[in-house]
């Protein structure tokens, strides 16, 4: 899985067809969508129209909360694949654990079946906590390869990242740019960026890459799609990394996975 990919939350289906096309032309090869984003059809169209060989692409989609459960997961997977126009998926994620319901266990058993049947190359989770991961390990067979969670300099998830490292799970950062709001105006990032001739967004993405996180920044702006991909020609120093480590505020932008049960 490429460490730097492209996310498409809040991109309308017709816009996704265009934006994913721009991302692929720029050089991205990993695309992160979800059933809930309602843009799997446009994403699939862009993948096909790119002319890029299927084995050079890495496609992730996610099972939405309302479809948790064994049979409903199998049906939702088929529907996602029909919209994407794919035979085999690279990575399928349970979007949210919804711990109070406990249905993520049967959902995962359906993921295991799809994986064992060769319909998915890798299975993972999103928004899982240490507690929901431990229950998954105890009650199911296949370990998730990825946990995609909110992660940016204001929410660094140190404890969860260390847990992932101990269990050989890759950490994937959603909202890696803090949704482009206050974070990118932080003076610490401006100072580091000036020293390297890079923008605040590029500094943040480089920080993720050097930590070992998988990142999937979203933009519908072609210049930003290119800017976010141009992060492989510089390196943050140990002092830069320490300064960004000091920005942690354990501050979420999105919902708390311990309590988020939205099915809409
Ligand atoms: N599993 C989950 O529960 C979740 C997964 N995700 C995934 O993570 C992806 C990324 O997260 P997302 O929440 O979209 O937020 P990001 O942190 O990627 O930020 C996206 C926002 O930042 C702006 N932006 C992008 N690049 C730049 C730049 N170089 N300079 C300034 N502003 C910039 C974009 O604007 P513009 O588009 O106008 O250019 C957009 O408003 C999603 O698209 C989705 O795939 C996201 C949330 C939850
Ligand atoms: O974007 C996603 O993948 C999400 O799960 C979020 O949008 C989430 O549903 C949310 O933020 C709801 O407010």
From TrEMBL:
InterPro entries documented for this protein: AKR (IPR020471), Aldo/ket_reductase_CS (IPR018170), NAD(P)_OxRdtase_dom_sf (IPR036812), NADP_OxRdtase_dom (IPR023210)
Lineage, broadest ranks: Bacteria, Bacillati, Actinomycetota, Actinomycetes, Streptosporangiales
Annotated transmembrane regions: none
Domain of life: Bacteria
Keyword Cell membrane included in the entry's annotation: no
Keywords carried by this UniProt record: NADP, Oxidoreductase
Residue span(s) of domain NADP-dependent oxidoreductase: 4-247
Identification of the protein by name: Aldo/keto reductase
Family: Belongs to the aldo/keto reductase family.
């Amino acid at each position: 899985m490429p460490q730097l990919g492209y996310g498409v939350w809040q991109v309308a289906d017709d816009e996704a067809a265009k934006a994913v096309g721009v991302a692929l032309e720029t050089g991205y090869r990993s695309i992160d969508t979800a059933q809930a984003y309602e843009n799997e059809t446009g994403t699939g169209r862009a993948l096909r129209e790119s002319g890029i060989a299927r084995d050079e692409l890495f496609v992730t989609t996610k099972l939405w909360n309302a479809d948790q459960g064994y049979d409903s997961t199998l049906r939702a997977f088929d529907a996602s694949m029909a919209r994407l126009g794919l035979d085999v998926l690279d990575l399928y994620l349970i979007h949210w654990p919804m711990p109070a319901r406990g249905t993520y266990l049967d959902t995962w058993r359906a993921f295991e079946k799809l994986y064992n049947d060769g319909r998915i190359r890798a299975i993972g989770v999103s928004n899982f906590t240490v507690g929901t991961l431990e229950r998954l390990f105890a009650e199911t067979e296949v370990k998730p390869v990825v946990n995609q969670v909110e992660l940016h300099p204001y929410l660094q998830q140190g404890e969860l990242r260390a847990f992932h490292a101990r269990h050989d799970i890759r950490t994937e950062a959603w909202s890696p740019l803090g949704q482009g709001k206050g974070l990118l105006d932080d003076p610490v990032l401006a100072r580091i960026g000036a020293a390297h001739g890079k923008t605040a967004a590029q500094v943040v993405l480089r920080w993720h890459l050097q930590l070992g996180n998988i990142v999937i920044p979203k933009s519908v702006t072609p210049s930003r799609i290119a800017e976010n991909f141009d992060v492989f020609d510089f390196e943050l120093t140990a002092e830069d990394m320490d300064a960004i480590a000091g920005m942690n505020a354990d501050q979420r932008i999105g919902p708390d996975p311990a309590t988020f049960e939205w099915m809409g």
